[in-house]
Please model this.
Amino acid sequence: MNDLNKKLILSFLIVFFLGTVALFTLREATESKIQNLNVLSSVPSFELVNFNEKIFTDNNLLDKITILSFVFTSCPDACPIMSENFSILQERFKDSDLIQFVSITVDPDYDSNDILKTFSEKYSNGNNWYFLRGDKNYISTLSEKGFFLSALNLPAGHSTSFVLIDKQKNIRKYYKGTDDAAIMELQNDIVFLINEKT
Model:
């Protein structure tokens, strides 16, 4: 075997080895990211009202995988993106009866039931997305103390995070609601929870 052949074989082995290591590292990182869904906290007890005036409580989260957000309808920047991302996820999981979406307005003084209904008609394509309202101070406390999300100077100071909640009312993870990569991660984690044995 001449030197050229030896160099070619050695180069091939090096490339093969590096490729194998890269694939293994990527797979491990992906699995670790998806499976990093430890229980962070339990959802607190709460009671709010959907735009159709039906009471919605924390018990409505039982046996469902819930994605929750805090928004307001007159928000000029983050909320339309967040709501559009909810709409995308709702469409992707339209065939699953395990998934539901909850948006809580941080501006209940402006966001009447009629306004929330109109907002719902703009973004939602199903009956598994709830648009809730209640007392502003109550919502502020619920956001900060219950879901550990900022609620300073509402409505503008609301959090833009999505909260992933499992079928036992446990908070499992937070995601940046305006970030495409985070939404893809959330989508993968939803699939993981759907298949998770309880």
Observations:
- The radius of gyration is 22 Å.
- Residues 41-195 form a domain with the Glutaredoxin fold (CATH 3.40.30.10).
